[in-house]
Amino acid sequence: MKILITGGGGFVGSRLAKAMLQKGHEVIVLDKVKGELEGFEHKNMKILIGGVEDEKIVKEAVTNCDLVYYCAWSFSEKMIDGFKIDVLGFLNFMEACCNAGVKHIIFPSSSVIYGEPITTPINEDHPLLVEKSRAPTHAITKLAVEKSMAIYYKERGIPFTIFRFWWGFSDDRIPGGTLRKLIDSALKNETLYVPKETAGSILYMNDLIKAFEIASLNENAYGKIYNITSFNSTWKEILQMIIELSSSKSTIVEVEPFEWKGPGFLTGKWILDDSKLRKELNFIPNEKIAKEAFRNALKRMIELRMASL
Fold it and tell me: Between helices 88-100 and 136-156, what is the axis angle to 10°?
């Protein structure tokens, strides 16, 4: 099978690319930079340098592709740039997909489009309160792309599947500047502050890869939106793990949510309901393995931060 991965140099895209190559598929990567694929080569992989806004290179990229994993994203904080790059770029890309006869497109979206949790756990029918999101531009552009996919499926017949998640990690990396700052504070034995009762659903990239494999060209997944998670954790539990793994003397102070003035990423109860995915696609993550992988990745991050201080 020939798979095109847009944004294949990024955190999610690069891991999907390597996994699909291991499965024996032909992979085309379209990205503005090689990113996390820098220095990586494979006989069945071709990297095209360019963006989804570029009609010529997009046309080349989609030629003879069976399947698309759409991971391209700018993460622009300016709304005008977000719409120009992410939304208009996506529409340009979808036109090319329709003309090329692409059979299926899968999109890793974000729980950020829920805006703020008003019920817990959050299911796929939760209101999409993008204007209340901690990252409103990110939220509204993700939502625009999701809705555009639904319209293309209805009007042009190109099936889509969407996976929404809160925070993802891999064996070798846990992204996020907020986490790095917390680790640095712990290494300096500083007090660690966190809002009370905040939590989230954490996703192991191996589980996301497995879900993509199950959904690919699977008619049962066509036109569907799924929450996906590996395990749930409170922020207090994560801070306790950081203190333990770093042998820190830091203490944790919990702050009332209405008094919190720190990073927005630490706020809210972002517990996702993944029962729809479990029921419809029989996807059951191994929570024990994912938790151990997270602990090991966190330990690795602490060691790297320790070496840099």
Answer: 20
